[in-house]
Design goal:
Helix content: over 70%
Strand content: 5-15%
CATH topology of one domain: Hypothetical protein af1432
Number of strands: 8
CATH class of one domain: Mainly Alpha
Radius of gyration: 58 Å
Shape: elongated
CATH superfamily of one domain: Hypothetical protein af1432
Order of helices and strands: HHEHHEEHHHEEHHHHHHEEHE
Distance between the termini: 223 Å
CATH architecture of one domain: Orthogonal Bundle
Structural class: mainly alpha
Amino acid sequence: MSSALWVILLIFVAAAAGVLVWLTFSRRERLLTETAERETEALRQRAEEESRRLLETAEKEARELVDRERKRLAEEEQRSRQLVEQELARLREQAEAEAERTHAGLEREWTDQREAREELRRDREKLEQNEERLNRRGEQQDARATRLDEIETRLDETAAELRAREQELDAAREETRQELHRIAELSREEASAIIMDRLDSELTREKAIHVRASLERAESEARRRSFDIIAQAIQRSASEVSAAISVTVVPIPSDGMKGRIIGREGRNIRAFESLTGVDLIIDDTPEAVLLSSFNPLRREVAKLALSELVGDGRIHPARIEEVVARAQQDMQSYIRERGEEAALEANVVGIKPGLQQLLGRMHFRTSYGQNVLRHSVQVAHLCGIIAAEMGLDEALARRAGLLHDVGKSIDREIEGTHTEIGANLARRFSEPPEVVDAVLNHHDLDRAETVYPVLVHAADAISAARPGARRESLESYLKRLEGLEAIANSFPGVEKSFAIQAGREIRIMVEPDNVDDDEALLLARDIANRIEQDMEYPGQVQVTVVRESRAVEYAR
């Protein structure tokens, strides 16, 4: 065989071997691919199962975690709620403790204020007592200095008199010596007559000297005693008068209302005083507070407002402002009504509303303890009576009498006398010239142009001088009369007694069978002494004891 065949054979064999190898590798590759696919599928299934298992595990763990977190949150919420409740309880206890401490502090503060007011009142009383003692001591020192001056003057006068008498004695001694030479030649009767005449003349002179000295001492003592009496009378009446014209008592339902009137940290009482212009005094007086002011209008407004606040029970600054404003409006209506009533009572018509308002203001004004509006109405009546008797215009006289003191309604707000202010007001409201003249000149009759100022002057004097019109209220006046009669009736043998002449005389009827004439004199003296000891009164009181016997028989 040739080499070419071998070559072809080899090529063929190599090609067959190559095909076989390719087939082998193809098969192996297919087997490997199938194996890889099966393994991949198995891995995929295992991965899906693992992922499903992991997902279920994760979901289970998530549910468990959510449950645990929910339980934890519930426990934390429960613990928080418990903490909040504990904190609220603690805060409530703290608030209650703080309220108790505040209440105790307020009670202590109120107690301290009450003790301070009591201490202040005691100090004020001590100061007043010390002032009174000092005044008395000053008066005693003044009286002692006056007496010392009088004694010194009398000593000087006595020394001068002694020197003069010494000179007179020297002259008398010389005259006596000469007289002795002359008397030696007289008889006993003649000498006795001469001596007696001389003694009479000397005794007469001595008596005159002693009488003059006694009169001087009596006059000095009377002057000092009169000053003491006047000072004591002023002291006894000044406090009552000042209290009556400056203080108003407002009753309250209980002492617990005082704390509400004061308010927290005193804000209510400060608001009330600032709005009314009146001092509100809260002391230990049971169930009462005091309003102090020298302006009666403000005091009356404050009384109305405080009475409403106490009755309502709601007391705070806003409410106080509302009530005070309403009380001021009510007071204006009340003043106008008082003016209208006064004009109606005095039978005076045609007075303008502004003048009626001014008349109503005089209801809260006093003069020497006398209500000015009541005094003006009385003067109007008296002027009408006098004018009717004199044949003058009665209506014009009553008008002048009613308006004569109208200036006193605003004389504390405007400068000038009440007559000038009243005359200007009368001109402004177009009153007749006679009324203007009476208002302007009823205290100065020399400048009067008509007769009406004279009428008003006379009626004014009559009204002011009537018993009980001045210096004391009607209540104290009646108490004094009742006290006089009670003292007189307390003595045995007194049948009845009558206080007359405004308390300046007490007339006592005694039983004639039990009291004789001598005992009547002693009874009058005893009653007078008892009145001096137990009562306070102006001037003097005359005690008259009447004893009489009556025989009564009837003819039938």
